[in-house]
Amino acid sequence: MGALLEQFQVTVGLVAGMLAIMGVPVFLMVLCSMLIFQIIPALLCIPTLRKAGFSAWWALPALIPGMIIPMLWTFAFIRWPRYPSDPR
């Protein structure tokens, strides 16, 4: 429990430092851009992953900048659990 509290304190300290350096308007712009360009596409991957028979945890690499393309490339060419027979 102590480690979790320490991580929370570090996170709060980092956010407070970013607010002090950048100011509130810039911080909110960065936060909104992260929401629009990273979190929403990752959330939109989840229904497709579930239909294909994969875990929703596969959407986590989409949160890393630049990982969505390799993730989609891998997803396109691996064998899907829901469709085990290769249609080719």
From TrEMBL:
Protein name, per record: DUF805 domain-containing protein
Species of provenance: Undibacterium squillarum
Segments traversing the membrane: 12-37, 57-78
Keyword field: Membrane, Transmembrane, Transmembrane helix
